[in-house]
Amino acid sequence: MNPADITAQSNTPNILIFDSGIGGLTIAAEITKILPQHPIIYIADNRLYPYGTKPDAVLRTRARSLFPILEAHYHPSIIVIACNSASTLILDEVRALTDTPVIGVVPAIKPAAEFSKTGSIGLLATKVTINRPYTQNLINQFAGDHNVVSVGSDILVFQAEQKMHGNPIDTDAIRQELLPFINQPNIDTIVLGCTHFPLLRDEISHILGQSVELIDSINAIARRTAVTLSKLTPDLPSTLPTPKHRFIFTAPNPKIDEITPTLHRRGFSDILIGNH
Length: 276
Ligand code: DGL
Hints:
This protein is α/β, with parallel strands linked by helices. It folds into two domains: about 5-105 and about 220-275, Rossmann fold, CATH 3.40.50; about 110-215, Rossmann fold, CATH 3.40.50. The protein is built from twelve helices and ten strands. The protein has helices at about 5, 25-35, 55-75, 85-95, 110-115, 125-130, 135-145, 155-165, 170-180, 200-210, 220-230, 255-265; strands at about 15-20, 40-45, 80, 100-105, 120-125, 145-150, 190, 215, 245-250, 270-275. The protein has a six-stranded parallel sheet with strand order 4-3-1-2-9-10, with helices on both faces. Strands 6-5-7-8 form a four-stranded parallel sheet, sandwiched between helices. The longest helix has 19 residues, at about 55-75. The protein starts with a helix and ends with a strand.
């Protein structure tokens, strides 16, 4: 069956969650907790994964061609770009392409700066997110008077994917990536500025110790999604059928069998290849 056909079976406003891979799963989980009646269409752009190593021009071109296709196929009521590497670059551009509300995920610098007692915070994100003017502006605006240690890691993205695929993860490699934080014991708060990283929260916390607070944007994004959706559909009946959640890869995925059990466990009944 074509993924678009089954999506059209539901009349309840649906939420399209987008990431390069499985990073948006934590956001999807929080959204379904707050909005249990809304179908999720999760798009994993495995055709271009990982985003964190791609030049800006490549990601821009991809966004310009892909988002209109996704809209035409899935008719989302709202789009959540659950990817910092994409949002810090193409959020405004995607918004300009569509009338559908678009919510983006960007590093939670402000809450981290407010939370820190020592005035020393860490930012853990992909290399492209670290280098974006958007991110630098957030730091200047909200943490200008803080010591900010930024670490760009694409290895952690891979390790998070490994974990969700049920494969062993390399804790030494994770520790190695976190060394700049370990070497600055003054850091009491770290921003998880990539949606893949909360999937490694336990491992990161184990290495850095419980005294370091790990801050992400998951809850804020889920709440913003709920508020935006309630404005769009104020008259929705309170009892609606249990929705079907679909997980769609943009390209054929040779590892689909490895990831399927995780996706089923997380409530996705249909796992499909969209060929987008
Ligand atoms: N999950 C993504 C992010 O928040 C991208 C990871 C990647 O594909 O490199 O940045």
